[in-house]
Amino acid sequence: MMIHPKARPLISKLSLPTPIQKYFSNLDWEIDLSNNTNPYVGGFSEYPDVKQNDLKMLYLNRILGINPSPYTSNGTREVLTFENVLFTAGSMEGLDLILRTFAEPNKDVICVTLPSFSAYTHWALIHNLEVKAIPLLGSNLNLIDEEEIIQLNPKIIFLCDPNNPTGTKLTPEAIQKLCSSLDGFVIVDEAYIEFSDQPSSIFYLNKYKNLIILRTFSKAWGLAGVRCGAIIADEPIINALRYVQLPFSFSSSSQEKVEERLLNPEKTFTSWERIKKNRKEMLEELSNLGGIAKVFESDTNFIMLVLKDFQKTIHLLNENKIRVLDCSASVPNSIRVSLGTEEQNQKFLEVLRKS
After folding, report:
1. pLDDT, tens only, 62-77
2. How far is CA 154 from CA 3, 54, 191, in A?
3. For 157-167, what is each residue's pLDDT tens digit?
4. What fold characterizes domain 267-353?
């Protein structure tokens, strides 16, 4: 199994965990008497499938049709396979796996943008990595200084795209420039990409071998309790991650729930369109309210607002038992509000009209 040459040196000294190695052998076992489990109680007495090849292909077939391809009808795109996918226990495990596999503690530099998802910095600090923060630019905080990042030449840069908490999306050109200019890895966290009508970076995977995509089933797919995410990348990257991932972290019950949702996606797809419609209406309503200083553009299922009277508005929301996320530590006087049902959205707007 070829692993990526930029994996930490110790990875090359490891072997796959024994149970994983067994399942990656070329033999088809009819009877498994090696796992020391109780054969009489049924249900989940067998360990989960660690390959999940069919499930991975089902997933790829679903997601490649969601967002528009940046290629024209005459363009070509190499086909991704199950070798490009690793399922994880949520995308949180994915980012931790990437750091443990490729970043050398007390040596490598990790780059993040601000404001963005705080977990990138959290896990990098746990792994004793130096973190350099690059501020997002522009009136909608959807631009980055690519040259500053290139000069830093980090081992890994995390880009949340669309971004949390701003909801805005970077340009494909900015991401491609970083991929083509950096020696390290460009991690694009696409936790909210299903809510966007803009192209996904997944279509550039075969062009840039240092690009890694993080996905989750927690948000758009509505399976937060199942704990499933995915890393999509070049095969040697996926192979290196397998040496570090805890065995059997993607449980049999979680695999069943994911497969069920992927085989019957119509209700989920319809909900995405409904959320996009509600987002458009909400953005229009919010832009006309006097108590709001700024409404950020959104390619997600949430909207970030800057309030004119932060304390008054928060008091009104609390009084009406409506919970939003306080983002004032990232952007002064700002909140992030998720799109709920139409009824919930209207109640939220009613409160803001009083602020």
Report:
1. 999 887 777 654 444 5
2. 21, 35, 22
3. 999 999 999 99
4. Aspartate Aminotransferase, domain 1 (3.90.1150)
Burial category of 85 from C-beta neighbours within 10 Å (exposed 0-12, middle 13-18, buried 19 and up): buried
Q: How many CA atoms lie within 13 A of 292 on its CB side?
A: 20
Residue with the two structure tokens 């443990």:
100
Q: What is the pLDDT of residue 30?
A: 78
Q: Which fold has domain 9-263?
A: Aspartate Aminotransferase; domain 2 (3.40.640)
- Dihedral angle over CA of 19, 23, 27, 31, nearest 10: 70
d(CA 60, CA 87): 12
For 183-208, what is the mean pLDDT?
Answer: 96
pTM score, whole prediction: 0.93
Mean pLDDT of 305-309: 97
Ramachandran area for residue 207 (φ above 0: left; ψ -120 to 50: alpha; else beta): alpha
| Angstrom distances, CA of residue 270 to CA of 170, 200, 255 | 26, 19, 23
Whether the bond into 165 is cis, omega within 30 of 0: yes
What is the rounded (10 degree) CA torsion for 4, 128, 174, 66? 70
Q: Do the beta carbons of residue 167 and residue 193 sit within 8 Å?
A: no
Give the closest residue to 60 by CA, choosing from 86, 88, 89, 82.
82
Give the span between the Cα atoms of 85 and 219, in whole angstroms. 19
Q: Delimit the domains of the chain by residue range.
A: 9-263, 267-353
